[in-house]
Structure prediction request, 123 residues.
Amino acid sequence: MNALYTLLSVGSSLLIGYALHALYSGFPASLYGMITFAGLLHSGLIKAAKIEASIAWVLRNMGVCFVPAGVGIINHFQLIKQHGFTLIAIIFITTFLLLTVVGVAFQRLENTDIASSPNEKNN
Prediction:
């Protein structure tokens, strides 16, 4: 029964995502769906305890989803062989930049929160 609840919850969130994509088209429909799903979980309209087991099963078996990507890599091996170093450099540089930007932004937000909160004195 929880699997059906999970399927309906995720499916309805994705449908809402497609509707939002049709209205705004700024982001992919799946991203709108994930944001909707997270919002519904946060608001309590979707019960996390009911979907926990089904989501855990999906995460345990998620490796099956990567098989087509592996086949695609093999199909384009010559292209990867030709531009492999460039691709690896781009992946490492952009990952480093992303982690750096997120880390700096988080530190600034944390420092702002600490500065704006009232000082508590411990006795």
